[in-house]
Amino acid sequence: MKRLIPIAIAAVFCASPAVGETRIFSYDPVSADAKRLTGTGLTFLFETRLLGGGKVRKIMATAVPAAAEVKSVGAGALGKGASIGPGEIYEINAEKAQGKVYVRAFCPGSTKAWLAVGDLRHGRDLKVQVLGDDPAGGPARTCAEMEFAYRGEWRLGAGTRPDPFEDAFDSSLRY
Prior knowledge:
It contains three helices and nine strands. The protein is an alpha+beta fold. A hairpin with an 8-residue loop joins strand 6 and strand 7.
């Protein structure tokens, strides 16, 4: 039995995408907030993790060239008493790309915005909670709760940096 455990662990690593691999998933809006705030949906550029899911690096509008860089932050960045949904917390970088536009669009009146992003997995739908800083100085407030249906994955060339505005999209790609 002890010999089977290392073999099983090795099989899991061989069957899953490489850890640290860059991937891009696109999602169609389902909820009213998602449709209102994203139009045709969002696309996430992320690095895969050992046990699945991924660490988001960039969010992009699916239909137009608008992108924002994000960084992972702890729940403490939102202040005490902030109501957070499931998922990892990312702060939108308002200083790079169209980050400031995303903050204004997702959370009017806020100067900072965070996304609680559910688990990014191939073929699975996604929930994203948008939070913004409170102009009155309180804890972060919920601005929107968006639900998305998985649309597909962008096909990336070997060894290239992905660019969803130029790379081919292939919704039939499966792992």
